[in-house]
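forwarding from the other thread:

> can someone predict this with zinc ion?

sure thing
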Amino acid sequence: MKNFVLPLLALSHLYSVPSLKRVCTHFLERGGLTKENVIDVLQLARNCDAPRLSLICLRMVVKDFKSVSSTEGWKVMKHANRSLEQELVESVIEEDSRKDEKLRKLEEKKVYLQLYEAMEALLHICKDGCRTIGPCDKALKGSQVACNFPACKGLETLVRHFSNCKTRVPGGCIHCKRMWQLLELHSRMCDEPDFCKVPLCRHFKEKMKQQTKKDEAKWRLLVSKVIAAKNSLGPFSLAQRSIAIATP
Ligand SMILES: [Zn+2]
Ligand SMILES: [Zn+2]
Ligand SMILES: [Zn+2]
């Protein structure tokens, strides 16, 4: 079958024998394609009006372009059918940029998710305290179990730095600058500044009243992205993630 399937497919189409044509296309679709024959099969499938087979070929070319484009079939097609060559190369480029875009979005979402986790940890540190940091009335010390906030440890270090840093001027020290940004982001997301225990929450709320339109738009966009990242997690994911962190 393997050796005759291509001429058989062509003949079955030419003499309108649908049952034989079906057998041939099925054979090719289910494992009969190789990187050596895929270009020939693609052209034949298009000439024989076999759209599904042609689509499967196209996918294989895009997926395995490097090896397919070094085959004899590709070289022959390149000379005989310039427009097909161009079409296939464009499909590969398109697929590549789609992948890049997907990756970029995923990376971006990760950053917003980290910001959301930092916001949660900041509230937790300022409200409950954690291990060696935060309000002393909660008596949380070293012997306590590790907390459920993935960003807590990193933030604890940052807060500690912030309170001891000599440079401190916003923009002067990158760590302090980061802390200022986190505190401002919190304030932008906080809806109860009067009871809030996070430092500078009310200060930033006051400052917001004099902000420029550009600043307002910038922060609003950031807040909406952080909230979108949080919502994409679903209601149970935070607990699941802390379990995932706890089990090595
Ligand atoms: Zn904690
Ligand atoms: Zn600093
Ligand atoms: Zn607040």
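The CA atoms of residues 148 and 246 lie 9 Å apart. thats all i got for now
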